[in-house]
Amino acid sequence: MMKEKLTKLWGKISKVLLVFLGFQFQSCIFGAMYGCPYADFNVKGTVTDEDGKGISDIQVIIDVYQSWTDDIDSTYTMLDYTDTLYTNDEGKISKKNSDIFDEPAHVRITLNDNLEGLDNGGDFESKTLTDNDEIKLRQTKKGGSGWYNGAFEASFKTTLKKKS
Hints:
Number of helices: 1
Order of helices and strands: HEEEEEEEE
Strand order of the largest sheet: 4-1-8-7
Number of domains: 2
Helix content: 10-25%
Strand content: over 45%
Distance between the termini: 89 Å
Largest sheet: 4 strands, mixed
């Protein structure tokens, strides 16, 4: 009776072990990879007023999208990464090495002046930038073997107008 219980227990344990070892054996011998593609993403930018002076405390919302086409030529776009930063006293933002899922296809940056009154020099209009006009999107490092697709950088310099 005890021997039967131990045999059943060993059978269950060995099945679990074989499942884990089986995946490891397959990935080592046949080169299969488990995981997701990823890339590094850096962003830097400057926001100035119409006189060329940097504007502090501007909210900068960064949205990074990826696109792909399936086997029947349908194109899909997905929001991959989003972050919110605020400009410093010189009107600059910078963030390095934020992991994104894959190579970016499109970047959109939304600028908002959330301060009441004149704390940062004025009351400024909101503005949205895309990679088709004011955002420079470029690859700064090539990907290697495996899932790593390299590093990408989005940079911009823009001017906000005061609200009338």
